[in-house]
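FAQ: What does the model actually see?

It sees only this:
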Amino acid sequence: MHHIGRTLRPDARFVQLVRQAADRQEWYAAIRAALSGGHASSTSAGAAVDPFTLADPDVVVGHLTAAGFTAADVVDVREPVCYGPDADRARAAVLQPWMAKALVTDLDPASAKRALDRLCATLDAHDTGNGVWFDSRAWPVIARRR
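And it is asked to produce this:
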């Protein structure tokens, strides 16, 4: 955030949307539960990149303050996220990120098939006929450059 702060003119507005914690993301819990045998975890998949590193608004405000921003405003937003227009395309989208792949990579073929079957059932259950939707929460963060 220091690099961003240095590139903005004084009093410029900075806006960022960050995910809230994993346990506040229906999509995260449902996909992990499906791919890991029904045992959802609120922690990240353990890879080098954690999609929830900015989930704590105090951490975000701290980073912004250290980078020269003031008047940071963090708002709780709950909006559904669409994974695709139908369950088949949602499955393809879910299996792209490292998180989902990591959950099935080391499984034997029979276990991997069961995990993918559970994933399909989960996506089918969230298919509204107008897309595959999951609950999601984020923090829109707005701050001013000093």
